[in-house]
Amino acid sequence: MASGKACLLGVLCSLIVLSSFIDSTETASCCLRYRKRPVLCRRAVGYTIQTINTSCDIDAIIFHVRGSFVCADPSVSWTQRVKECLDQRRMNNAQILKEGTQSPTVSA
User: Fold this and answer.
1) Would you state the CATH architecture of domain 30-101?
2) I need a labelling partner for 39 at 20 to 30 A (CA). Which of 11, 13, 56, 69 fits?
């Protein structure tokens, strides 16, 4: 019985160490500088908004481009254009999905 408790204690300690490692790696992935060249909307598949917090020193829009991430200054005009393009694309896709799930009405 004592060996079962020791094993359980070992597993719990391992989970605590692992969860703290995962938390630290999440906070380490933030933009430190901006890309100067614009990203094309057709290449971007999404974005994330980064705000200043304890581990990230700058506000940024992180564009998800196939195979990588691009950090952009949120105050620059091309960043706003690409963000609006992606928002519009998302709304269009949501509208298409909504229309596709509606059942057709039958008139008598």
Assistant:
1) Beta Barrel (2.40)
2) 56
Give the residue among 46, 35, 43 at the shortest CA–CA distance from 74.
Answer: 35
pLDDT score of 70? 97
Integer-rounded Cα Rg, in Å, for the chain is 22
Q: How many CB atoms lie within 10 A of CB 11?
A: 10
Tokens standing for residue 13: 């300690």
Residue 108 near residue 68, CB atoms below 8 Å? no
Q: Is 102 helix (H, G, I), strand (E, B) or coil?
A: coil
Predicted model pTM = 0.64
Per DSSP (E only), the strands in the chain are 44-50, 60-65, 68-72
